[in-house]
Design goal:
By secondary structure, the protein is of the alpha+beta class. The protein has helices spanning 7-30, 48-54, 76-95, 101-117, 123-126, 144-148, 206-221, 228-234, 309-312, and strands spanning 132-138, 158-164, 169-177, 183-196, 241-254, 258-262, 265-275, 279-284, 289-292, 302-308. Strand 2 (158-164) and strand 3 (169-177) form a beta hairpin. Helix 3 packs antiparallel against helix 4. The relative contact order is 0.17.
Length: 320
């Protein structure tokens, strides 16, 4: 049902949304971030430039996603760690607990272990596909999608759905329930494969890096065979790995029938630190750059752990 033909309903929805956001923002000012995350679960952060070889500080504080990056690729231990993390995230989602310091500590420890494994991932199985619900996060600021879904006294699902075209681009939907499935916000846009992240020595430009990568890829292709195992291995991508995201529009939906388009545009980077078929760990290496509309969506250093929605909310029947 289009609200363009019904200005009265459009005005009501807009007023409800503005009122709700005002209450959420008021509550967020009164409730510090530490109330959402146990102190031990919210490490101090350094910038992505410091993390990847451009640190001028002699003794930086190491964030959760930069510790012990020395482990090899996927191992049986990695699979066991992922399974244990999934179990804890399911427990957190079922109890809707935001103040269980012990559980958060256990989750953060397992998250750190998976990031340190530097495992490869298959984007066709772990990025492309259904909605993955955001269950756990750490960072200096509470993201906007958590703020708008933290009120109302009902279960509010938040997450992302990516649709890849099989090449180097695709689309995404950011989804955040405000009052369950009867009132939610979604933002849509395009994503693009930006490639693996590596530490550059000082003075090396991105152009020189690209030229070097092309040469290495050309040499590697000479040694590739045509069997299926090699083709399957080539589909795996290393971590950390970046995707750029461009929000092109958004809307709020009431009772899954009435929708109101919002004028929101922006850009950001999604850094994959770990991903498998059940869960994934993303980092925002920079602040979201909102070019049209308002709101601080995500801040630099935010680490989000997402789980495939049917594994945590088996009764969820969302719009996609």
């Amino acid at each position: 049902v289009s609200l363009r033909k019904n200005k009265g309903v459009k005005t009501i929805i807009m007023n409800l949304f503005v009122l709700f956001m005002s209450l959420v923002l008021l509550c967020s000012h009164q409730r510090p971030v530490s109330s959402f995350i146990a102190p031990s679960a919210a490490p101090q952060l350094i910038s992505s430039s410091q993390y990847y070889g451009h640190n001028t500080s002699p003794t930086p504080v190491t964030p959760i996603y930069a510790r012990s990056l020395s482990s090899p690729d996927w191992t049986p231990d990695t699979k066991e760690t992922s399974s244990e993390l999934l179990r804890m995230l399911q427990s957190k989602a079922s109890t809707n607990s935001k103040n269980d310091a012990r559980l958060d500590d256990q989750i953060n420890s397992l998250v750190q272990t998976l990031i340190a494994s530097k495992s490869h991932f298959d984007p066709a199985k772990s990025i492309d596909g259904p909605l993955f619900a955001s269950i756990h996060f750490t960072g200096s600021d509470t993201p906007l999608w958590e703020k708008i879904g933290s009120a109302g006294g009902v279960r509010n699902v938040k997450g992302q759905k990516y649709t890849l075209d099989g090449g180097t681009s695709g689309t995404f939907v950011n989804y955040a329930e405000i009052l369950g499935q009867n009132f939610y916000l979604k933002a849509m846009g395009d994503c693009k494969d930006e490639g693996p992240v590596s530490s550059l020595p000082l003075g090396v430009t991105s152009k020189e890096k690209s030229s070097s990568n092309n040469l290495l890829e050309a040499l590697a292709s000479l040694f590739k065979s045509g069997n299926g195992d090699d083709n399957q291995q080539s589909a795996l991508l290393p971590t950390p790995y970046d995707y750029s995201a461009t929000v092109t529009g958004a809307s709020i939906v009431l009772f899954q029938k009435f929708s109101l388009d919002l004028s929101i545009e922006g850009t950001g980077t999604v850094r994959v630190l770990y991903a498998d078929e059940n869960l994934r760990i993303f980092l925002s290496p920079t602040d979201t750059n909102v070019t049209k509309g308002g709101g601080d969506w995500e801040s630099e250093g935010l680490v989000v752990v997402q789980v495939r929605v049917d594994l945590v909310y088996d009764d969820w029947a969302g719009p996609f």
